[in-house]
Amino acid sequence: MPVMRGSIAVLPFANRSADTADAYLAEELPEQISGRLSRIAQLHVTSATAVAAQWRRTPDALGAARALRVEWLVTGSLRRASQQVSANVELVRTATGEQGWSSLFRRSDGDIAAIETLVAESVAVAVGGRLAPTQAAALRHSTSRNPEAYRLYLYGRSLTARRTEADLDAASGALERAAQLDPGFASAWARFAIVRVLQTQYGTTQRIGRDSLMSLGRAAADRAIGLDSTDAEAWLALGLWNALWPNPGEAWRALAHAEQLDSLDGDTEHAIGYLYSNDILGLPDAGEPRFRRALALNPDLRNSWRQLGLSYWMSGRSAEALAAFDSALSHGAWLIGLSDRALVRYSRGDIAGALADQAAADSLGVRIGGVTIAAPFDTRRRLYALARGDSAPAREFLSAAATTADDLAERALLAAAIGRPEGALAALQQLRSMPDSAEPLCAQRTPCSTSLRTWRLLNVPLFGDLQKDPRFQQLRVETRPRVPWLSPP
Question: pTM value?
Answer without folding.
Answer: 0.85
